[in-house]
Each structure stands twice: as C-alpha cells, then as structure tokens.
Design a protein that fits this description.
Elements: E1 4-8, H1 14-26, E2 29-32, H2 52-58, E3 78-84, H3 90-96, E4 105-111, H4 120-125, E5 131-132, E6 136-138, H5 144-154
Parallel strand pairs: 1-2, 1-3, 3-4, 4-5, 4-6
Length: about 160
Amino acid sequence: MNKILVAYFSASGQTMRLAKTIAEVSGGDIYEITPTQKYTSLDLDWHDSNSRSSVEMRKPDSRPSISNLKPNLDGYDSVFIGFPIWWYEGIIQTFLESFEWSGKNIVVFATSGGSGLGQSVEILKKSCNANFKDAKVLSSSTNSASIKKWLESLGI
C-alpha cells in the first residue's frame, strides 16, 4: 500500500483546506510547512513592491526558513506538496532541499483563483531527486469528488 504525506504551506487557509481534503481522500498524513517568521497581512501585500512577499518573489534564491522541519519521510512512498501559486516556490524549495527524496513520488498541487503552474514544477524539480507526478492547480471550488478522480488518475 502506498503511504502518503500531504505537506502544505498556506497563507490564507485555502491551501490548508484543500490539503486536508487530499489527506482525507487519500488516507494520508498531514504536515503544515510553517515559516519561522509568520507572514502578516502587510508581508503578503503583493501590491507593495517592498513587502516581504514581493521582495522574496523577486529573489530566486530566497529560502524562507521553516520552524517545524520535523517530518520523518522514511515511511512515505508519495508526498503531495501544496502552496499558493502566487507565492512562488521559495518556502517549498526550503522544504525540498531539507530531505532525501530518492525513490519517492512528489505530487505538486497549487491553489489559485486563475493562474496556472507556470514554471513552478520545473523549478521545484531542481531542488530534489524525486519522481515528480502530474501536478495540478486547485481552486476554491475543488471538491472531494474531483480530488478523488485526480488521485485515481495518478495511480499512486
């Protein structure tokens, strides 16, 4: 049986909700990727070019630190990794670069109100040696039935 972990970073709660649904549908465990320095609403103001999130997004080498970097990945075959697509990859790269991934499947999911994945998966692939499965963008209207169908299509 394929043992699954669903790891996610969520700023507004949308990614958290969908990560919990994926964990519930898959029977997987859940893990929240928590930044050492929490993001405030001012940090998340992408209209402000000097906000923390705007500055981090402009820096490809940005790696926000994670406060709870504790999961033992040894028992997991597949890890779903979720984040808001507008956030880009920084904190997820921190997570990926912190573990050994060989022999594991990674399934990226991003939450968005309308944006696609862009180059996110290609960027994340550079952070670890894993088998990346088909990624998906999920929206606020994504429900457990559509998640179940997606999981079945992955064959894991």
